[in-house]
Specification:
single chain; alpha+beta; 7-stranded antiparallel β-sheet
Length: 134
């Protein structure tokens, strides 16, 4: 598994809402300024499904990221299985400096693991900036 982390300077309830509500996901779910997420749906419960569409702003490509939740503990943890079978774990821990978010995910086999780590970290960094500035 690949692990990424960041600490968001905000209350846990805000972090959870910004992480899980589709109207927020579409604003932060991007690794760079030339990508965006024009669509997101999210049923945050065990057995619930999620789907987001990430697209290049120039229209050259897009893809859906979808899966099913296997664990949901509000303000604490989320686990899911992506439709391609890979597992993801996300832990939220309240600290004196905010909320520490740790994501662990199974790598896919097409791209180098370092590239995957950098991409997922860039999205987590985008989440941090969005929460702290809104």
């Amino acid at each position: 598994m690949i692990t990424i982390q960041n600490t968001v300077e905000a209350a846990i309830d805000k972090v959870w809402d910004f992480w899980t509500l589709p109207e927020n996901i579409t604003k932060w779910n991007t690794p760079s300024q030339d990508w965006h997420t024009p669509y997101a749906e999210n049923d945050v419960r065990i057995g619930g499904r999620f789907k987001s569409t990430m697209a290049a702003k120039d229209g050259s490509m897009s893809f859906d990221f979808a899966g099913e939740y296997t664990l949901v503990e509000k303000n604490k943890a989320i686990e899911y299985v992506i439709d391609d079978g890979r597992k993801v774990e996300i832990i939220f821990i309240e600290t004196a400096n905010g909320v520490e978010i740790t994501e662990r995910f199974d790598p896919e086999t097409i791209n180098p693991e370092e590239m995957q780590r950098e991409g997922w970290q860039a999205i987590l960094d985008s989440f941090k900036r969005y929460v702290e500035n809104n």
